Structure formats: C-alpha cells, structure tokens
Amino acid sequence: MTDTTITTTRDQVSEGETGTANSAPLEKHGATAPMPLQDEGPDSHSKEDTTESDPLEEVKKIASDNRDRWLRAVADLENFKKRTAQERSKLIRYQNEDLLKDLLIISDNLERAISHCEDKYASSGLAEGLRLVTNMLKDTMAKHGVSPIECVGRPFDPTFHEAIAKVAGTGAAPNTVVEELEKGFMYHDRLLRPAKVTIAA
Questions:
Q1: What pLDDT does residue 164 have?
Q2: 157, 198: one domain
C-alpha cells in the first residue's frame, strides 16, 4: 500500500470520529416533545358554574331580608303606639290622684267637725252647714271616680285594709274587721288610700 493511500485512509477515519462526536449531543439532547394540552371537558365548566353564585338568588335573599326587617319595624312601631296610648289613657284616668288624696284630708277633718257638732250643737245651723259641705265634697269626688271601701264586718284584706290593732272578746271571727278608724277609698280600680281598721283577735 502506498503512502498516499494510508494518508487518505487516516483522514477518513479522523473525519468519521469528528462527525460522530458532533452528532452525539444532538442524539442525547434531542428536540423536546410538546406537552399535550389538557382537554377542558364539560366537567371543568360545571365545576366553575357551581362555585359561582346566582345573582338573581342573591337579590331575592336581600329582598327577603329587607322585607323581614321592615315587618319587624312595623310591628315594633304598632306596639309602641299601643303602649303609648295605654300610658296616655292611664295618665288621663289617674291624673287627679294627688289632688284627691289631699281632698281626703279635708273630708276627714269635716267628718270630725260634724261629729263634734253633733255632740253639742246637733240642731244648730253650723252642724247642718258642715253636713252640706261634706256631702258636696263627697259627691264631687265620686264624680271623679272616688268610692269608699266597705270594711266593717268583712274579713281583713291587706290589699285594702291597714290593721292598727287586734281586739279580743268582740265575738267576731278572727281576722274580721270590727272597727274602722279611718275610711279607705278607691280611685277607679286603683287603691287611693287603705282603710285603717282594728280586727278581731
């Protein structure tokens, strides 16, 4: 074999090695394959639809809440009107309570004056005048709803009676009112003054 042939053969071998070395990285790090896209099927859309709230339902709920608050406010207002009317009615009905309590003191003193006059001046004009004034005062108080409490001979009732003493040997049943020391009065259906009494022991 000639020298020219040997040289050519070496050049071919070296060129082949070089080509193999250059092509190896391409084979090792070949082109990256594209990632397949996920198929967005009907399930993904249904999940999004379920998570999102319906605007119409939200509006209905807000309207229902507002209606409930309005109904409660109307009910509270009606209750307030009724309560105010009742308080006003009571205020008007019992507006003269303090005045009538003061008039009772005057009536008591007139009763004492009549009792004194009957002992000494029963037939005098003074006693008759006192009786007339006393009766006029009682009639006036009766027009405004004042009525006396009947208590003598009845069982003692702490709601309307104030016991001053217990008396033995009266022949009455125990806790029976035997004497009235100061007359009690009612003002409509309210106690104006309890009767001061003595009861049987």
A1: 94
A2: yes
Q: Is 114 left (phi over 0), alpha (psi -120 to 50) or beta?
A: alpha
Answer yes or no: do 189 and 201 share one domain. Answer: yes
Beta partners for 43? none
Q: Please give the mean pLDDT across all residues of the chain.
A: 80
DSSP-derived 3-state class of residue 112: helix
Q: Measured between alpha carbons, how far is 139 from 186 in angstroms, rounded to an integer?
A: 14
Q: Running DSSP on this structure, what letter comes out for residue 143?
A: H
CA-based nearest residue to 58, from 69, 46, 66:
66
Q: How many Cα neighbours within 13 Å face the side chain of 188? A: 11
152 lies in which domain range? 146-201
Phi, psi of 194 (to 5 degrees): -75, 155
pLDDT at 32 over 80: no
* Residue 17 structure tokens: 């090695």
CA atoms of 27 and 5, how far apart (whole Å): 33
**pLDDT category, 107, cuts 50, 70, 90?**
very high
Q: Specify the length of the chain in residues.
A: 201
